[in-house]
Amino acid sequence: MIDHLFNGLLTALSFDILPILIFGVVGGITLGAMPGLTATMGVAILLPFTFGMDSTAALVMLIGVYIGGIYGGSIAAILLNTPGTPASAASVLDGYTLTKNGQAARALSISAISSFSGGFISTVLLIMFAPILANFALRFNAPEYFALALFGLTIICSISGSNLLKGLLAGTIGLLVSTVGLDPITSVPRFTFGIMDLYSGISIIPVLIGLFALSEALTQLESIVSEKKQALRNFSLKMLSRKDLKDIAPTAIKSGVLGTVIGSVPGAGADISSFVCYNEAKRASKNPEEFGKGSIKGLSAAEAGNNGVTGGALVPLLTLGVPGDAVTAVLLGALVIQGLTPGPLLFTHNPEVVYNIFSSMLVANIVMLIVGLIGIRFFCKIIEIPRILMIPIIMFLSIIGAYSINNSMFDIGVAVFFGLLGFVLIKFRVPLSPILIAMILGPMAETNLRKSLLMYENSWSFLYDRPIALFFLVLTAFSIYSAVKFSKRKKKVIV
Amino acid sequence: MKKIIKTTLAAAALTFIASVSAADYPSKNIRMVVPFSPGGGTDSVGRALANATKDVLDQNIIVMNRTGGAGAVGMSFGAGQRPDGYTLTVVTREIASLPQMGLMQHTADDFKLIRMVNLDPAVVLVSQDSPYQNIADLVAAAKKKDGALKFASTAKPNFYLMALEKSQNIKLNAIPYNGASEAIPAVLGNHTDVTMVTPGEAISQIKSGQLKALGVMSEERIAYLPQTPTLKEQGFDVVTGTWRGIGVPKNTPDEVVETLGAAFDKAMASPDFKQFMENGAMTIHNLDAKAFTEFVKNDVKNLGALIN
Amino acid sequence: MVMKRTPSTKNCAWGAFFKKVTDMNVKNIILPSVIIVISLVALYFISQFAVPSFQDASVGSKFFPTAIAVIQIIICVCIILGEIFHKDPQQDSAPLFNKYSIFGAVFIIGYATAIYFLGYLAATLLAFFLYLVFFKTTKRYYYLIAIVFTLVIYYVFANVFYVALPEGLFAGLFYD
């Protein structure tokens, strides 16, 4: 194993491969930073170009795009409050607050280091424990997914803070929106009103773009009184301090491990992971009230959490031959095109391919860290662009982004609607992230509850006779209890 | 100013007409609508075919994923485009089933079907430690357990299963999963008893022995699974599977359809595309426009019998 | 919680309640009230859902939407009651929209409509110029940036990302 890994590293660092890897990572970061363009799309777009490439180069490039893409989404989230993908929505909570406080460089450096930590830990765990993780992942089915989704939904309680009722209201709005479309179990149309575009439900990315990017653009526009009066936002180029690094290290490592486990379960991806890690970091924190107000630990947890998925998601791909998320589905296609059979046989028949993948992931994470840290200076220039120019640019990019995810005019309408809705909700002090969390997890909860009932022939015994499901249900109860306690404590402080 | 606008419009109108005329087709990039998301089987076949055809036509073919409604959104979108041959649509078996279930307004008649690309049978799969060794075991168990045998379904409703259920007068507990990538782990983890997917979707698990193939739902054994007997051989006359092809909006000029048909013939015969399909354990099944249209008509009838 | 702006409370309990209702910021109960109405409409539509033709379990397609709508109504009622009895001290009374945010909303809707009819290139150039004119920008290079931005994005999407941007309904007339 060691010599395979060593050979793999030599390949990844060779003159033929390293430039391709760097190209992939940089391309992925650029793509991920655009609203609406995701790591999945990047990998899918590049796939046909790999037809003619040799298999190592092809896989290395795609992996670079994957790892860079998930990190890139956070740059726009932190600097402009416009998360490029649902996976970086949790980074907005603290990252953008830090930017508003003039600490963009600090936030970006924390993001780069945490993403690296998450991605690197995840890859190491993948190399060492892939078969164990795979066996664990196989024990997940409908009841476990249902319990996991319920646990995830309790995040809404914890990120709503003192405004519990309004957070819950936002959650129910998201849940209701997520029921639009054909019922996932019986194909009965729900709230479709005969409109074809609604049959598949309302896509998350246009909603995300509307809620965060467009509503933020509107809010900023409102505060512009005249071009002359607007001052340049002051910010320092100071990166994170040694103390910061010490502060975030435990969170970043824990979130990386947690992200790997979540990633290795098929069907749970970077979006769920970043919110779950954020929630866990907040629960474990001694001062949870800092979260959402520019906590570096919160940012670090979200960032390590979403990149932590990268290694985990390859577990089912490499060990079972089934993709763990949308990106690995495309990677599976790439392996197949190269004439390789993903799954357990890959380890015995083509170990060099497996270890090339492993080592290029390790190297890609390092490249991402270096590019991310060097890039901070350039990324920060974005804030220096006069707001009067930046606002329309964000609006245009948002709308094009909403369009390009599914080439759909309807999605533009969805983004505009949620942009206006988000703007109004901000005015009423309703938090927006719960809408997104509910849209991601609501369908997962509903589908899997109903699948479980089908499996158990309408008996509810799956709630207690499956240990993993029971574990998550207990966590759920605990999470609700502590959120309610926390919101009560906070009210007392105000009064 | 007015004059400029007028001349521009006139010129534009002329180019517009010119672009419709079939003589110089294709004179610009072509779009290919794929009604499923990137990374799936339909998407990868579409992209591989686009890649192979672009050299033949000497025009770029841009794949456009338009997902939703189990393919209904993308196919309806493709059917409603300008019939100039610059928008191709990957049509899948859903075009035959969805309209009959009232889930899609357009039907196969809204397309001029150009070529069928692949036709793959379904394979009946159980996990390696399953007690069932052949289809007879499975059918007997299904009868005995009376609807309690758990079937991991890749779609709702599942026509592979319904074909077997109808012919044997049995009933399984179909649990709807989101495609093969969820249904296969459900069988691997012994959460469900059996599933049916196409060979390409499960070839790696079959080869590694994690999944046992009980039978292929085709007329004859297939090249990818030479050891696996068909259902017919085992005495169960059930043949089903899935297919994909290419269509254009129904008013597309015949010359354009012929140009495209000839291009697809070349593309499907190209070594690259053949290799791609072989790697993915998919079977190229090139039917020309007439045969494909006939095939789809029959399939609509077959599915109609199951649905109603 | 102390109600600062309540001068003297009348002896009668109903009087106090009435006082509280009139005193609070009406803005704060608009949103929950609107959402209650939407939930009720949703409940009506849920009752109209078709009966599935295939399979069903004890928890059917109506269960989740119904539960969500009911919970949503309960939450909204709680928020309204909370507003009446514990006025949120943080509430400001700034107007919902100002001139610029109304412009922004109209601008976004207008751009989305324009891109449908005119396609990406024409709509974006037009919208960007209108925007700069609205803010009475005199800097020439801003207009230049608008042109460069529009073209660069067009090029990058078409040739690097392989995403065909909307051509608009009149595509044949302009871009062929």
From TrEMBL, chain A:
Annotated transmembrane regions: 20-47, 59-80, 116-138, 145-178, 198-219, 326-347, 353-376, 388-406, 412-428, 435-456, 468-484
Protein name: Tripartite tricarboxylate transporter permease
Keyword Transmembrane on entry: yes
Residue ranges of domain DUF112 in the record: 20-436
Pfam families hit by this protein: TctA
Entry keywords, A to Z: Membrane, Transmembrane, Transmembrane helix
UniProt source species: Marinomonas vulgaris
Cell inner membrane as UniProt keyword: no
TrEMBL record, chain B:
Keyword annotations of the record: Signal
Family: Belongs to the UPF0065 (bug) family.
InterPro entries assigned to the protein according to its UniProt record, in alphabetical order: BUG (IPR005064), Bug_dom1 (IPR042100)
Keyword Signal: yes
Signal sequence coordinates: 1-22
Organism this protein belongs to: Marinomonas vulgaris
Name assigned to this protein: Tripartite tricarboxylate transporter substrate binding protein
Highest taxon, organism lineage: Bacteria
Upper lineage: Bacteria, Pseudomonadati, Pseudomonadota, Gammaproteobacteria, Oceanospirillales
Keyword presence, Magnesium: no
